[in-house]
Write a structure and sequence with these properties.
This is DeoR/GlpR family DNA-binding transcription regulator. The chain is α/β, with parallel strands linked by helices and 260 residues long. The protein is built from 11 helices and 15 strands.
Length: 260
């Protein structure tokens, strides 16, 4: 596209094109749209704000995704906060020692954590997440145990009685769980009670508990299913989380806060 492409296009046509691009790609960043349409990032942000007010899109940190009243798919989540999730995952990987048995929850951040464990040896990873299994499928030095059960296609994780039965026969040194939302009082928020039940059991089976949640999850309560937080645990989030979002966790007894 020429450099004058976006400026020649009317605002209405530009917003229609933005809506189509977001719908087709699942999630996009402001800079990507600005480059594609040859307009400034501030113009794109104004367009996204208007489209969000009209209910046509949902804003994310640094971009937008299709408007939805339900649970976003793993594919949609994968495109969000990539840099922040990777920083969180790299920090988490450094907490894992040779010989550890670790539980990894299903999700995008734990998938990135698994990626950074590929070169580890003497490690056992127990997981219900397809993204984790995919990352470790050819990591021969890592022993991988999958929790069977019913697959939730939208989140690409196994849940249900069979997963819970397998988990009941295992203990772990550390567990790393994700969240759709995280509230200092209510705990971990997810779309399904099957998810929160399994997270609660994963937490109970480990000596050390880490919740991996970028700043968009802090204080969020998008659904009505909750897993309570344990007496002691560590929150790992990104260093762009605003002080107001961090404050409830900083004052929570038994919680350690790490920003990366």
């Amino acid at each position: 596209m020429g450099t004058d492409f976006g400026h020649r296009m009317t605002a209405g046509k530009r917003r229609a094109l933005i809506e189509r691009l977001v719908t087709e790609q699942g999630a996009v960043q402001v800079e990507e749209l600005a480059d594609a349409l040859s307009v400034t990032s501030s113009t794109i942000r104004r367009d996204l704000s208007l489209l969000t007010e009209q209910g046509k899109l949902a804003r994310t940190y640094g971009g937008a995704m299709p408007a939805t009243t339900g649970e976003p798919s793993l594919g949609q989540r994968t495109a969000l906060a990539n840099a922040e999730k990777d920083r969180i995952a790299r920090w988490a990987a450094k907490q894992i020692a040779p010989g550890d048995t670790v539980l990894l929850d299903a999700g995008t951040t734990t998938g990135r954590l698994a990626h950074h464990l590929r070169e580890h040896s003497g490690l056992t990873v127990v997981t219900n997440g397809i993204s984790v299994l995919t990352e470790l499928v050819d990591a021969d030095a890592v022993q991988v145990i999958g929790l069977g059960g019913e697959m939730r296609h939208i989140s690409q994780g196994f849940v249900g009685p069979l997963a819970e039965l397998t988990l009941s026969r295992i203990s772990a040194d550390k567990v790393f769980v994700g969240a759709d939302g995280l509230d200092a009082r209510l705990g971990i928020c997810e779309a399904s009670l099957l998810q929160t039940r399994l997270k609660e059991q994963m937490i109970a089976r480990a000596r050390e508990v880490y919740v991996l949640a970028d700043r968009s999850k802090l204080g969020a309560a998008p659904f009505n299913a909750w897993a309570p937080l344990p007496a002691t645990w560590t929150l790992v989030t990104d260093d762009e989380a605003p002080p107001a979002a961090l404050a409830p966790f900083q004052s929570l007894a038994g919680a350690e806060l790490v920003t990366v």
